[in-house]
Amino acid sequence: MATYTDERGDTVRTEETNRKVEATAVEARQGRLGRPVLYVLVGGLFLAMIAWGAAEFFGEAVDNDAATEVTQPTTGTSTPATPDNQPVVDNTQPAGESQQTAPVDRDPTPETGTGGQGAAPSATP
Question: Does residue 26 form part of some domain?
Answer without folding.
Answer: yes
